[in-house]
Amino acid sequence: MNTPQPASVPTRPTLVVRCFRLLFNWRTVRRGLVGLGVLITLIALFYTEEDWRGKRAWENFKRDLEAKGTVLDWNAMIPPAVPDDQNIFKAPKIQEWFVRGEAKNELFNRMDSQTLPEFVARRNGNWIAEVTVVSTNASVAPQAADIVLHYGRVDADIRRQLEGLLQGAMGESTNHYGGTRLQSPLGYALLAGSLKPGKPVRIVVRVDTVPKTEEVAAFLNGPAPATARPGDSLLGLAALGANSFRAFLNSPRAYAASDYLAWSDQFEPDFDSIRAALKRPYARMEGDYQEPFAIPIPRFVLFRILAQTLAQRTKCFLLLGQPEPALRDLTLLHDLSRLLEGKPTGRPMTLVAAMMNVAITGLYVDTIADGLRLQAWREPQLAALEQQLGQVDLLPFVADAFQSERVSVPCMLEKTPPARISDQLILFEGGTTNWWRRLQDPVYTFLAFAPRGWVYQNMIVHVELIQPAIDSIDPANHVIFPGKARGASEQIHTLHKSPYTILESMPLFLPNFIKATQTLARNQTLADEAQTVCALKRYHLAQGRYPESLEALVPQFIDKLPHDIIGGRPLHYRRTDDGRFLLYSVGWNEKDDGGTVAPNRDGREDLENGDWVWQVPK
User: Fold this and answer.
1) pLDDT tens, 321-380?
2) Bridging pattern class, strands 147-150 and 201-207
3) Alpha carbon distance 467, 351 (integer Å)
4) Closest by alpha carbon to 130, among 154, 146, 149, 141?
5) What is the total count of domains within the chain?
6) Nearest to 199, CA basis, from 248, 128, 144
7) Which helix (H) or strand (E) holds 157?
8) Which of 109, 143, 286, 297 has its CA at a distance of 20 to 30 angstroms from the CA of residue 258?
9) The domain containing residue 241 runs over which residues?
């Protein structure tokens, strides 16, 4: 008898199988494709609408500005060709020396290697005094000491005696906190005398308890000036035993003027080559000007090193009482600006080039001021410097730089591929370009994937934000308006964050215009004040006193008085009771504070408050 078999029970598909069937069900696939198509269509419509609206807004905005006379065409910034024989950059070596990217630059390599002149290494072991610390009650034989000090006690007569002995050991230099000591642009001291020590000075210091080495050094150096930095002392001490020391010149804080001049004379042929080139009237760097990113850029590091070297040589000549060669090197420092100003058009003027010009002018005026403090300039040099200072007019170049920034960024965003923009930014920062590094760049991410309409909207915001900065400078009347500059800064800081403003939040696209304008105003004010002071010094040499008013200088000592760049009114001047004078600008706060300088927290001059006073030493 056959036993009936039970009917088979159908097994349920697993969860994975059911999901697979659901996912690849034709109906599901069709719905997914329809949904994907709708999403792509919506995205395309969104991009199309944003692109159309952004480009239309930019074209309308650009048309309105151009109707008012505003130039937004990069072609207007391209400098015309000039004859080779009239172009500074066609003179031998100038293009390869001063243009960034040129392969050969032996001047840069030679000057950049000047960490410390060789003569410093030869004198590092030189010491100028033997210091012995003894108990207060100990007897000291007269022949055992040139001078005896009591630790912690300030005695002006003995302090002057100590300084005189140390000066004799160093040569002809005087008190290292004044007199014939000048500050180098690189942060060390330039001294008039020789640094070759003679017979060491014997110093005995009486103490109750033996102090630390650094305490003895601080005592011997005396009170530091308010402007001194930590470690900025001329003397250092090395302990020989429990109570004896050797005092040495604190390298590399001090250099002899004659030594530095002898070392830097190696660059005289190069200086002469630059002087010969500067006789030409035009300055047009060779390169591609069709795109903002491709324009030739000055080699700013060489400008800085060359300017510092010329300033240092000038100060050395002044310390040695040689104003004629000092004026020669200082004149070359003044003329370096012609390499940056791009005559005959001055365009395109990048903001970095304009501010380098401003910085060189500041160093130039500071060096003139050192000569005035030393009373080293004579009538011929004062007249020449006054004429040079009268030629300093930084406002047109910074104003043109602002205008170039306004034109170059929209042109770059509109015409340059995002990958090239990103690669240029990475290379400028010293990085290596590749696809992964590019994807990490927020500028590339935005430019490559955001709607083009958003880029156009950012271009509008860029032009709008720069306009108040441009309005803060009036080159025609030689006036700067700090209130307008502050308004431009406030407008930038209160900028609403959105896709239409994302690029303007990056420093690359919107530099610190308020800082640039203030630095411009400060350095131009110093140049204008220095021109007036040269005329005042010439008047003093002729009359034996300073005038009651600046109008007495015209026309014998100055053709035309410079006015205050802040507000356009006359510079403030009065003769003081001690026979000197007070000369100042109302400064950035646009308020007459009576010639008062406002200090900030670290004791330096606060450029935001107080007056900008020409500092006259006692």
Assistant:
1) 999 999 999 999 999 999 999 888 888 888 889 999 999 999 999 999 999 999 999 999
2) parallel
3) 15
4) 146
5) 1
6) 128
7) helix 156-170
8) 109
9) 125-250
Residue 442 neighbours by CB distance under 10 Å: 12
Distance in angstroms (rounded) separating the CA atoms of residues 398 and 470: 9
Residue type, 284: R
Looking at per-residue pLDDT, the higher value among 415 and 89 belongs to 89
Domain membership flag for residue 244: yes
Rounded CA-CA distance 146/165 in Å is: 8
Please choose, from the candidates 285, 188, 168, the residue with its C-alpha nearest in 3D space to the C-alpha of residue 232.
Answer: 188
Distance CA 135, CA 126 (A): 28
Enumerate the β-bridge partners of residue 202.
130
* CA 96 vs CA 101, 205, 297, 448: distances in Å: 8, 58, 12, 36
Q: Return all residues near 617 (Cβ < 8 A) that are at least 6 apart.
A: 373
Enter the tokens of residue 145. 């000491």
Closest CA relative to residue 422, chosen from 414, 411, 434, 410: 434
Q: Are 337 and 360 in contact (CB under 8 A)?
A: yes
Residue 533's pLDDT band (cuts 50, 70, 90) = very high
Q: In terms of C-beta density within 10 A (0-12 exposed, 13-18 middle, 19 or more buried), how is residue 199 classed? A: exposed
Identify the CA nearest to 368 among candidates 321, 322, 331, 339.
331
Mean of pLDDT values over 38-62: 88
* Amino acid, single-letter form, for residue 533: V
| Secondary structure class of 133 (helix, strand, coil) | strand
Residue 431 confidence (pLDDT) = 59
Report the C-alpha gap between 592 and 610 in whole angstroms: 8
**Range picked from 11-20, 291-300, 324-333, 428-437 for highest mean pLDDT:** 324-333
Tell me if 388 is assigned to some domain. no
Confidence at 612, pLDDT banded by 50, 70, 90: very high
Q: Is the pLDDT of residue 430 over 60?
A: no
Across-strand partners of 574? Answer: 582
Cα separation, 343 vs 463, whole angstroms: 26
Task: Tell me, yes or no, whether 187 lies in a domain.
Answer: yes
Q: What pLDDT, on the 0 to 100 scale, is given for residue 179?
A: 40
Beta strand ranges found along 250-318 (DSSP E)? 254-256
193 domain-assigned: yes
58, 269 in Cβ contact below 8 A? no
- Give the phi and the psi of residue 189 in degrees, each rounded to 5: -100, 140
- For 105, which DSSP code? -
Structure tokens that stand for 586 in this block: 């109302």
DSSP string, 438-500: HHT-HHHHHHHHS-HHHHHHHHHHHHHHHHHHHHTEETTTTEE-HHHHHHHHHHHHTPPPSTT
- What is the pLDDT averaged over residues 147-169? 70
Enter the DSSP assignment of 356: H
Tell me the pairing of strands 479-480 and 473-474. antiparallel
Please, which pLDDT band fits residue 419 given cuts at 50, 70 and 90? confident
- For residues 424-450, average pLDDT: 68
Q: Is the pLDDT of residue 265 over 70?
A: yes
How would you class 318 by CB atoms within 10 Å of its CB: exposed for 0-12, middle for 13-18, buried for 19 or more?
buried
